[in-house]
Amino acid sequence: MANQPTNPFTDPDTEPAPALIADALGPAIEGWDALTRALTDAGVQVAWRWYRDGGWLAKAADRRRTIAWIAIEGDATRCSFHFAERLRDDLASLPDLPPELTRRVREAPRHGALFTVSFLVSGPADVERLRPILNARITLR
């Protein structure tokens, strides 16, 4: 079994700063920059928080709720959107959702009352692929 990429930011005393993120991601910093720009443009703020079981994770939230969780994994960024199971059909039937994303929404495993749609971001094109899910996470209730 291959090793899973791990979060390089596990020291509770060292919050991920821009230079550290750039060092960890290398060329994939373009994806991080595009992702944080897309979130900011959507009115979502990104703030780092340290968790004993996962190290530093970025919580992307608007004024009312969490929109996504973001982690650095190896040389890429993982952006995960959690949806209530009751929204699965609404999300899968959105007209602007590409067929590949519709399939991923329909097949995502259920975890309690939620399911997750997760993306690995290495460049700006990856952010464009996740944009319909980001927009849906902001608007669906």
State the order of secondary-structure elements, H for helix, E for strand: HHEEEEHHEEH
- Outline: globular
**Nearest-integer average pLDDT:** 94
User: What is the count of DSSP helices, taking H or I runs of 4+ residues?
Assistant: 5
**Number of DSSP E strands:** 6
Distance between the termini: 38 Å
Let me know the largest β-sheet.
6 strands, antiparallel
Helical proportion, percent range: 25-40%
Structural overview:
The structure is a single chain. This protein has 141 residues and is of the alpha+beta class. It starts with 17 loop residues before the first helix and ends with a helix. The chain has helices spanning 18-25, 29-41, 88-92, 99-107, 124-139; strands at 45-51, 55-61, 66-73, 76-84, 110-111, 114-121. The model has no long low-confidence stretch (mean pLDDT 94).
Keywords for this structure?
single chain, about 140 residues, alpha+beta, six-stranded antiparallel β-sheet, 6 strands, about 35% helix, globular
Short note summarizing the structure:
The protein has 141 residues and is α+β, with helices and mostly antiparallel strands. It is built from five helices and six strands, in the order H-H-E-E-E-E-H-H-E-E-H. It has a six-stranded antiparallel β-sheet with strand order 1-2-3-4-6-5.
Describe the secondary-structure layout.
Elements: H1 18-25, H2 29-41, E1 45-51, E2 55-61, E3 66-73, E4 76-84, H3 88-92, H4 99-107, E5 110-111, E6 114-121, H5 124-139
Antiparallel strand pairs: 1-2, 2-3, 3-4, 4-6, 5-6
